[in-house]
Amino acid sequence: GASLRLPNLLGLAWALALMLLWPGSPAAAGEYRIGPKPDWVLDIPVALDAPVPRDETSGGIYYLLSDMQYRAGETPVRFGRLAMKATTTGGVESAAHVEIGFDPSFQTLTLHWVDVIRDGKRQARLPVTPVKVIQREEELEYRIYDGRKTATLFLDDVRVGDVVDYAYSVAGQNPAFGGAIFGGLAMQWDVPVRDDHTRLLVPRGTKLQFDKRNGAPAPERSAQGEYDQVVWRQANVAPLAVEDNTPGWFDDFASVQWSQYPHWGGVVDWALPIYETRHPLGPEADAELERIKATHASDADRTAAVLRFVQSQIRYLGVEVGAGSYHPTPPQRVLERRFGDCKDKTLLMLSMLH
After folding, report:
1. What pLDDT is recorded for position 13?
2. Cα distances (Å, whole numbers) of residue 103 to 78, 147, 309, 323
3. Rg for the chain, CA atoms, rounded
4. pTM (2 decimals)?
5. Phi, psi of 19 (to 5 degrees)
6. Which label site among 66, 91, 160, 248 has the fewest CB atoms less than 10 Å from its CB?
7. CA distance 32 to 109
8. How does residue 38 score in pLDDT terms, banded at 50, 70 and 90?
9. Which of the four pLDDT bands, split at 50, 70 and 90, describes residue 285?
10. Residue 257: pLDDT above 90?
11. What is the rounded distance in angstroms from the CA atom of residue 108 to the CA atom of residue 303?
């Protein structure tokens, strides 16, 4: 979520990494589409002439607008828009590189526009810029495969002072969640943002719990036809300086989270059926269990023996595509292929203990 809102300021490093993986042909048909923005999306103006706070801007980029609009429902849709001004040659390299992540196993990506604004004149670059869809698998070194892809565009002829303005929509939700409404967003970053607009639409009468953190602003609420609308607006959002050597778990940025679950018990109720342990294990596991019973008398020793079997006989490999990112693989299948991720191995062990 939040990582899509403002591009990584190490844009040059990203670009170099992408070149190593650059495919030789354009994206295959069906991996994305080009179309107009959804009718329900509000148009938010861009302050093209806003003065640049040069003492706060880093990386040669000033973010004029960050606009995120969500609509919950049968098929949730997230609309994203970002407008950034390149203030240095280094900033040009970052602004000219557009990337949007999505999971093709349950999401569809629509590109609405990629424009360059120079001297107040808007140039449509999406029709003339190749779109490459690549699969980086950033956690493959940890033996985790998630199937996510990134639509990437490298724009020609971007200059200092230009504004790059692009918008897209991602539709769909991981089927593991069963249509539950929840989410979160950042309200502050380590770079300044001129205008920040976030809008959430949920079916009328939906009860949501909100959690504001670190001084996040209060929203405006209203009714919009069949939906309840929640809007956050911010202007001249100052950056937050992060101290060196700050622990990775510490987050001092303003943010908001929302959830349809009234309490953590609702999350537990969602997760418990996923780890139901009454699964058929197959003849191989049955034979192993009989061996453990025969050679170990106490429950403690039998438990340790099951743990050793799962640890030594099932290698770690996570195929976490779509619902598989939350739903474990059936234990019998894990035994057949002899690999699984943490939740696969957990369910196998629980089933054997059961």
Report:
1. 34
2. 13, 7, 34, 11
3. 24
4. 0.80
5. -60, -30
6. 248
7. 5
8. very high
9. confident
10. yes
11. 45
Residue type, 313: Q
Residue type, 34: I
Residue 152 corresponds to which tokens in the numbers above? 């990437």
Q: Each residue of 63-121: pLDDT tens digit?
A: 999 999 999 988 999 999 999 999 999 999 999 999 998 888 888 999 999 999 999 99
